[in-house]
Amino acid sequence: MTLSDRNTFFKAEILIAGVFFIFLAAVSAAIIPAYPAAAEETARRSPGIIQDIISPFMESNTYAPFAAMAGAVIYAFITLILIYYFFEKTQAPEILFFALFVLSLSFEGMRLFVPMQKTYEIPALYLLMASQVLLFGRFFGIFSLFAASVYAAGLEMQKQQNIILIIALIALVISLSIPIDVQTWDASYCMINGYTSMFRMVDAGVLLITLLSFLISAYSRGSREYILIGIGSFLVFLGRSLLLTADTWITPLPGILALVVGTWFICTQLHKVYLWL
User: Fold this and answer.
1) Which of 100, 125, 196, 209 could form a disulfide with 144 if both were Cys (CB 3.0 to 4.6 A apart)?
2) Taking a C-beta distance cutoff of 8 angstroms, is the pair 222, 80 a contact?
3) What is the pairing mode between strands 180-186 and 42-44?
């Protein structure tokens, strides 16, 4: 993929993230008053390893998931603009897939449909579609970060479009196959869906393989930068997990900080690796 083609991808990602950002800004004021009503109908606390630790000690908060979701959407929009600015003339194949991971956090804006249903009484079909788009974004994101680590470990740098298409198709098939209950949602305002435990294991497995791939890259290329990129990948995974499952005020800020610091590690070190190429 040429730099021009890759930069076209960056621009498209910024456009998509901008649409979600505008959607967030446009509907927030109208739907925020509906959050207490939506919170009263939550079926359970949001799942997650950190949530399992926090839940016995802290009550869920009505507006914390909105803060986490808004933080994810804003982070994605700003970060994609910065990636385009700093990597516009730098040939780094991993950054394209990391940018796709960043873009996936924009899809958290689909969680706005739960309070929207209370405000506008939208049909259940819209809730189903929003949940499927949300799940697609989440799977597309983790597979994209995994692809970045595989490229770093030595995958051929051609045919990036094909890799993106394969990732998108896999994420689409999974998201359309998961049973979703559009009548119930958890405390993070995500619709209750099936196979939750299995997909938590998938997340953990992808994280471990991703970290291992970056360690292999550090050894095979003799570049310590990839160790720091691996640390950054762990931090962005952690921040993502915190924002996706946040239902208390203690989690959104650490989640955003982990994302920002992890992104800084990844982008600065990739820039060092490819600066002179």
Assistant:
1) 100
2) no
3) parallel
**pLDDT, mean of residues 34-38:** 93
- Give the residue with greater pLDDT, 190 vs 273: 190
pLDDT recorded at residue 158: 61
Q: What is the mean pLDDT of residues 222-238?
A: 91
Any idea which residue has 């953990």 for tokens? 204
**Is the pLDDT assigned to residue 155 strictly greater than 70?**
no
CB 147 within 8 Å of CB 163? yes
Q: For 57, which DSSP code?
A: T
Q: What is the identity of the amino acid at 124?
A: A
Which H helix or E strand runs over 168? Answer: helix 160-177
Compute the distance between CA of residue 201 and CA of residue 203 in angstroms, rounded to an integer: 5
Instruction: List, edge to edge, every strand of the sheet that includes 42-44.
Output: 42-44, 180-186, 191-193
Q: What angle do CA 243, 152, 9 make, to 5 degrees?
A: 65
Predicted local distance difference test score (pLDDT) of residue 28: 94
> CB under 8 Å to 1, separation ≥6 — which residues?
93, 96, 157, 158, 160, 161
- Give the pTM: 0.94
Q: Which long-range contacts (CB under 8 A, 24 or more apart) does 29-35 make?
A: 30/119, 31/112, 31/115, 31/116, 31/118, 31/119, 32/63, 32/66, 32/115, 33/119, 34/115, 34/116, 34/118, 34/119, 35/62, 35/63, 35/66, 35/115
For residue 186, give every residue at least 6 positions away whose Cβ sits within 8 Å of its Cβ, in sequence order, or none. Answer: 42, 43, 44, 45, 46, 47, 192, 247
Write out pLDDT tens, residues 169-187.
999 999 999 999 988 999 9
Show the tokens assigned to 125: 């079909």
